[in-house]
Each structure stands twice: as C-alpha cells, then as structure tokens.
C-alpha cells in the first residue's frame, strides 16, 4: 500500500505551490529541476514548508483541493501549526 503526501512548497517569489506525491524527496527534486509542474518552472521552488500524510490517493487529492482553496492567510496559519 502506497503512502500519499500532500505538500506545500514556498517559491522564491513568496508564492505557494500545493501538490501530492508518493515520494516527497523525489518530487521536490523534480520541481527544482523544472521537470514537474508548469507552475514551478516559472516560480522556482525554495523549500517545502508543509506536508501531511493522506490515507490514499483519493484523500490526498481531496485535501490538495481543499488547501488550494484556502486564502493565503489560512495557508500561512496551516504552515505555522
């Protein structure tokens, strides 16, 4: 059974990118290499600021969508918890 992770990356310009993966280290390397999401090709990733484990891919996708809908203020609160 695979473990899924929901994560938030802070980009060099201060924006946030949210995604899901089974291998957070590998996925972050893909983002920094420019071979992952289109967003992180133009907004260079700086660091992973948040991650949480999800029960399955479906739950990870639902949580990703919920996080993406949050305001910046609420994302920052989530990150600081």
Low-confidence stretches: none
Q: What structural class do helix, strand and pairing data support?
A: alpha+beta
Strand content: 25-35%
SSE order in H/E notation?
Answer: EEHHEHH
Q: What is the total domain count? A: 1
User: What portion of residues is helical?
Assistant: 40-55%
What is the CATH third-level topology name?
Answer: GIY-YIG endonuclease
Major pleated sheet? 3 strands, antiparallel
Write the layout of secondary structure elements.
Blueprint: E1 4-11, E2 16-21, H1 24-33, H2 38-42, E3 45-54, H3 57-69, H4 72-80
Detailed description of the structure:
The protein has 81 residues and is of the alpha+beta class. It has one domain (4-80): GIY-YIG endonuclease (3-Layer(aba) Sandwich). The chain has helices spanning 24-33, 38-42, 57-69, 72-80; strands at 4-11, 16-21, 45-54. The protein has a 3-stranded antiparallel sheet with strand order 2-1-3, sandwiched between helices. It starts with a strand and ends with a helix. The model has no long low-confidence stretch (mean pLDDT 95).
